[in-house]
Amino acid sequence: MEAFPTSYQSIFDKIDQIDPIKYGKTRNHIDGAVTYLSPYISRGVITTNQVLNHVLKKGFALKDIESFVKELCWRDYFQRVAQHKNVAFDIKNPQSPVFSKSFPKAVLEAQTGILAIDNAIHLLYQSGYMHNHLRMYLASIVCNIAQYHWSLPSKWLYYHLLDGDFASNACSWQWVAGANSSKKYYANQENINTYTKLVQSNTFLDCDYESLVNSQIPSHFIESLDLDFQTKLPESNIHSINPQWPTYVYNYYNLDPLWGADVNANRILLLEPDFFSKFPVSEKCIQFVLDLSKNIKDLQIFTGSFKELESSFKLDKIVYKEYPLNNHYKGIEVSRDWICESISGYFPSFFAYWKKINPFINT
Ligand SMILES: Cc1cc2nc3c(=O)[nH]c(=O)nc-3n(C[C@H](O)[C@H](O)[C@H](O)COP(=O)(O)OP(=O)(O)OC[C@H]3O[C@@H](n4cnc5c(N)ncnc54)[C@H](O)[C@@H]3O)c2cc1C
């Protein structure tokens, strides 16, 4: 597993090293050529569009790198869904059956009995990252085998992930649990062994799919907990505000060092306690944000609400980037950098979105 460096140059180097062809052949394997870029995309340091343009400029034909391009588009797709639906609730169908709305203790303690998952949970606690397939296996065990509602488990995962993203996280959990898809996702032990190169047998997943879908909840998943997450925020450090300048507001979803870099502006990283009490994150995630924020020149931190920021410093020209969780901000809202800005609105399936966006990528 790679570490997550935070200097802008090291992030750019990661983009430059993408091998989109190898990616297409190996991405489902836990040692496959995935990019590890999601922490930077989720924190708004770089965008899917930037990554795509960089790769296309190297001369790859779209047909040869379609798998990679599709994944970038999945991300934009989920962002569009969250602009139009309240993804905190079951989007298409109520998840069913649901045994509990709390959290399985065996998962918290990395004692699921599936080696690949238990290792992945330990690695998540250590690194703040989990491979996409392991997230799918984990969510499938939690929601479809142990029958927990996706909501609290998704909050737990988001708390630990450096790439925690409200839209991708909620939509993906719901996709696995059948709340945002027409059927639930299952993976049996054979599938997990194939993609993780582990050889484990005689587990509750070691059966064919028909038996798996009809299985009883394994007894070690019955014990559940209600989790209480806290976020430790740093103190404000505002020391100088120029009232003649506009104020660029950065936040947990926007740490773009290139944003208006040529403009004279007050630059403030806004950390709202209310926001973090609804969407708590670990100390590791906050440290990651503080490290990334060093790429933004003269950035000052304000820990408090948007209203308090506005009134404490009598700011009259506030500029911020659109994100569905910022709806209470006031000022000049600027768009995010989409792969295709003009394809907006709600699409009920990724494939409908992909069909629409594909011709724009080809040109
Ligand atoms: C249960 C569950 C929870 C998830 N929670 C999050 C989350 O909180 N934040 C998050 O960014 N992603 C989430 N994902 C999506 C996906 O797992 C991660 O984006 C991906 O693993 C990131 O690693 P990477 O950058 O190495 O991806 P790569 O495979 O290298 O992909 C390149 C980029 O494409 C995008 N991408 C790839 N796969 C997906 C996908 N399945 N859905 C949406 N975008 C994708 C990401 O922006 C990623 O950085 C979740 C998936 C599942 C199944």
Give an account of the 3D structure.
This protein is α/β, with parallel strands linked by helices and 363 residues long. The protein folds into 3 domains: 8-84 and 341-362, Serine Threonine Protein Phosphatase 5, Tetratricopeptide repeat (Alpha Horseshoe), CATH 1.25.40.80; 103-225, DNA Cyclobutane Dipyrimidine Photolyase, subunit A, domain 3 (Orthogonal Bundle), CATH 1.10.579.10; 247-330. Helix content is 42%, strand content 7%. It is built from 16 helices and 7 strands. It has helices at residues 8-16, 20-26, 38-42, 48-57, 66-84, 105-108, 115-127, 132-145, 151-160, 166-177, 189-196, 209-213, 273-278, 283-293, 306-312, 350-362; strands spanning 103-104, 224-225, 247-250, 266-271, 299-303, 318-321, 332-334. The strands form 2 sheets. A 5-stranded parallel beta sheet has the order 5-4-3-6-7. Strands 1-2 form a two-stranded antiparallel sheet. α5 (66-84) crosses α10 (166-177), α5 packs across α16 and α9 (151-160) crosses α10. The protein is globular. The chain starts with 7 loop residues before the first helix and ends with a helix. Flavin-adenine dinucleotide is lined by residues 27, 34-38, 41-42, 71-72, 74-75, 78, 132, 135-136, 139, 157-158, 161, 163-165, 168-169, 172-173, 176.
